[in-house]
Structures are given as C-alpha cells and as structure tokens.
Amino acid sequence: MADKSDVKDKLFDQWPDRYDRWFETPIGVLVKKYENELLLELLQPGPQEMILDVGCGTGVFTIDILGFGPRITGLDISYPMLKRAEMKAKGYPFRAVAGDMRFLPFGDGCFDKVVSMTALEFIADGQAAVEDLFRVTKKGGAVVVTTLNSLSPWADRRKIAADKGHSLFEQMVFRSPDDMRALSLIDATVKTAIHFLKDDDPQKAPEIERDGKKRGLDTGAFVAARWIKE
Fold it and tell me: Which CATH architecture group holds 5-228?
C-alpha cells in the first residue's frame, strides 16, 4: 500500500471542525478521557522537557500534555489542523511546524521525548517512521506511538466504511499490538484502551472500560506502544 501524502494533506484540511466536534459528543468525551489517561501514563511528561508531538492535529491531546509543563513542538501535515492547534496552545510553550512524519525536519537527538497520537495509521512503512522518531529522540528518552487496533471491532467498522468509499478510512493501515511491537527491535510496553463501542450507552461505557482494563484485553480500539531509546 503506497503512502498518499498529496491526498492526505488536503483530506485533513477539511477535518478540523469535525474532528474537534467528535470529542465533544458523549461517547467522544469518554474516548478522549481514556485515550488521554493511557497516553499520559506511558509518556509521563515533565516540566521543561522538550517533547515532539508528531501528527498533533488540532491539539486535542497536546493541550493536556502541555499542562505538565514541557515545551512542545507540534508537527502536522495539514496547515488548517496545525493552525487550530496553535490557537488552542496560545500562551503555552508551543511551536508549530508543518511537515511529514516520514521525513522529520529535525536533527538527531533533539527531543527528550517523542509522541505520535493516531497518525501512524496513515503511514504504510511504520517501521521507517518509528525509526525516524527514534532518531530525533535523546538516548534514554521515551518514544510513544498510538494507533488504531486492527483487533478491535472499531477497526472492522472502519474497514467496512472504507470499502464503501469513506475518504478518510480508506487511507488507513490498521495494526495490532504485536504489529506495534514488531516496529522496533527494542522491547515495547504495549497497552490498549477503548473497550466499549461507538454505539454503546455512554452511561455503561465506563464499566465496560474498567472490565477490559482489569482483564488486560488486547482488543481495545486504541493501542499504545512505548519504547525507551537505548
């Protein structure tokens, strides 16, 4: 499957409002809550750390990371998405950079930590992308990458939508927890979240999520991997 950056950057340009509105829906609020909890657990951002946020989008998760006091460089391929993130982060130590995560415009070892939230699914060569995330990370620093889990019913629904011509979902590459581990020779900590479904009752979703976490299920829609650069 070839990368289609010329298509994707224009595609994302149309999504800032729709993307943000999704996280304001009852189920979207819960999705953000549990994804954010897992992200922060693995990233553990600290004051004055230099963090690169690759595929920062509209800054939905960037703002929560900034709340812990790091300095963040947010990179995204879409100017409208990046502009939205810049507006949200006004007053914070945030620098916006337009670019492609396959070709990071930074020198080696520039950042204490690197995070990429649900951007890898638009990259066919995930191993090469993760290698470049490692390249710009300092020795001993964390690389945290999250994506959509191929083992989840959410992925099945998106595949069906892609087959019907959904402009966004047809661009996606879904990966399992084992697929994420295989992106680097370094051992990874891999966890999943979002064990409820989009159509589940928001009142019942928290209990479903707690049960999935307690059971250590690997089928959550959101899969997150953390590597420590050696």
Answer: 3-Layer(aba) Sandwich (3.40)
